[in-house]
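Reading a protein record of the kind used here takes only a little practice. To see the layout at work, look at the sequence and tokens printed below.
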Amino acid sequence: MRFRLATGLTGLTFVAAWLATIQVNLQLASDVRSVLSFFVFAVPLLGAIHYRGKPQAFWLGFLLVFIVTALPQNWPLSEYQPTFRSVKNDNAIVKGFVERASHDRTQRGRVQSFISATVDFVGVLIVASVTGLISMQIYAHARRPSH
């Protein structure tokens, strides 16, 4: 498999934004993770629509697992709709850093929330990717001429 530089940089930006959520208040972190989760939902959907052949089979398999594992818990896409309550409060980001410096208990909660969200998200992505690869193999086998 070959990857373009733009794809690698997009992935790196995604990972950096996800990792940055450990440093901000819980509501802003939740909003950022929601936006990133929405993109992970939108990209396979667009891939399934745009591509044909094996790539379409991959994106359909990926999307199917993502929908089955992630969406039923949060239907109708409630987890993927950021509230941006933290942005409405002008000092929310500053308060988040002050809160982090003054409350160890809040920091532990933030870290636990981050770890839990990360493990869940990565698990879904791994299973979805494996299913996408299996879908590609099924597609290739179905297209092979029978003897």
